[in-house]
Amino acid sequence: MHTPITGIFWEALSAGAAVTELLREGFPDADVYVVGVLTGSAPDLRDFLANLGIPTADAVYFNDCFQDGAVLLIIRIQAPRDERKALKAILRHGGILPPSYEELSTAV
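Above: the chain sequence. Below: its structure as tokens.
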């Protein structure tokens, strides 16, 4: 199994638009997750993200953004060719990739 593709969105509607695109592209509903908090305090996601195989630096970055109200999009990838589709959907809808994706975002 591949490490999930992840992105941060500052607008929940933009994350929703990315999800819609991913589902239209054929990603199974069970492989696309959106994590956000509507009210109250955001939980610490570092352990959760580490368990998904997200690199520590990215988990810290995502957790900091999440604590500030961002929405996290997580996409499980079943085949290597799906990685590019997922990255494009995140970027097309205003998502931000973590620091470790810097070289990938310029290749998309």
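The mean pLDDT is 90.
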